[in-house]
Specification:
- The chain is built from nine helices and 14 strands.
- Helix content is 30%, strand content 24%.
- The radius of gyration is 18 Å and the shape is globular.
- The chain has one domain: Penicillin V Acylase, Chain A (4-Layer Sandwich).
- The two termini are 32 Å apart.
Length: 350
């Protein structure tokens, strides 16, 4: 039987504990399944003992509590309802801290043009295909905060998506120096969705004691932007001539170029960057044109639309989904599978 083209949609609301419990109840199967395989999948690229994994999770919980205790409270509610432990849920949030320079090879861009009128942000999400079965589209309506919608794996405190404040965000791996523990970047993403300006979005990330670097591509009320986030600072990039900005998996900000010399290139990052630049620079921004960009096969199988290949370390990674986010329209378009041969489904926050 063929796989559904839409991800399962869940909506929750209330206090942090209530939101968490509703997620745990509605997505119990996905959450438990993700917890069961998380460490096993990490060990496909780097060997991490169970003892080290959970020690990192517990230490990171302490940093997360200081940053946003309400979000840890939400996870406690999810753990209770799903029948897992808080440590198991925190392992989901920190698993990329064990391989900070090898967690997916996504390609992203943000654009604002006469065709889009307001900023749009998009990306391919290249990762372990096993994670598809744990992926949901989740709408949160927290008590006292803005509603948000994310395409995420069940059990994560946040991921790619947008909020009713007009912020949309996509995420790329950024090979750069890291440290063992700190605030997981899923927590900073969650606070970022509460911002209503680029400056506030930057501050939500900057104030966290971060464990790993990450790239965050944004559509904001102030226009497109890209944040190259290191453990020491947040470097902001803005678009130039044609109103678009692109990113793959290496540093672009002038202050960070030397970092690229110390980290191996992640799955043809430089060639993908050249290709996405050429493609985005040649379109006016219509949604259908952006969809075709995400399905581009130049350099196949390690192309923008990524397929299984013979690389011994990460050849099993594929484009699990692609998404285009229109935060001002409160909607996003998502493929369940490679965008070259799967249709985009539209999800709307009403």
């Amino acid at each position: 039987m063929s796989k559904p083209t839409r991800y399962r949609e869940i909506e929750v609301s209330g206090s942090p504990r209530e939101v968490g419990r509703q997620i745990g109840e509605a997505a119990r199967e996905e959450t438990r399944g993700f917890c069961e395989v998380a460490l096993e999948r990490v060990n496909k690229t780097i060997v991490v003992s169970r003892e080290r994994a959970f020690d990192t999770a517990r230490q990171s919980t302490e940093f997360a509590e200081k940053y946003r205790p309400d979000l840890v409270e939400e996870l406690r509610g999810t753990a209770e309802a799903a029948g897992v432990t808080l440590d198991e849920l925190m392992l989901l949030q920190v698993r990329n801290q064990f391989t900070p320079d090898k967690e997916g090879g996504c390609t992203s861009f943000a654009i604002q043009s006469s065709a889009t009128t307001s900023p749009v942000v998009a990306q391919t999400w290249d990762n372990d295909p096993v994670l598809d079965e744990f992926t949901i589209v989740l709408t949160r309506r927290p008590q006292g905060g803005p509603a948000s919608m994310s395409c995420t794996q069940a059990g994560l405190i946040s991921y790619m998506g947008f909020s009713e404040t007009g912020i949309g965000a996509c995420v790329n791996t950024l090979p750069a120096p890291s440290r063992a523990v700190g605030v997981p970047h899923y927590f900073t993403l969650r606070e970022l969705f509460e911002a209503d300006s680029l400056d506030k979005a930057v501050e939500s990330v900057r104030r966290a004691h971060r464990a790993i670097p990450v790239n965050i591509m944004l559509a904001t009320p102030d226009g497109p932007a890209d944040l190259e986030v290191t453990i020491d600072d947040v470097h902001v990039l803005r678009p130039e001539d044609f109103g678009a900005i692109t990113h793959t998996n290496h540093c672009v900000h002038p202050d960070l170029l030397s970092v690229n010399d110390d980290f191996p290139e992640l799955i043809q990052s430089h060639s993908r960057k050249r290709q996405i630049d050429s493609l985005v620079g040649s379109v006016s921004g219509e949604i259908d044109a952006l969809k075709s960009i995400l399905g581009d096969h130049d350099g196949h199988p390690t192309s923008i639309c990524r397929h299984v290949n013979d690389d011994p370390v990460n050849g099993f990674w594929v484009t699990v989904f692609a998404l285009i986010i229109e935060p001002s329209e409160r909607r996003m378009h998502v493929t369940r599978g490679t965008p070259c041969d799967h249709q985009f489904e539209t999800y709307t926050l009403v």
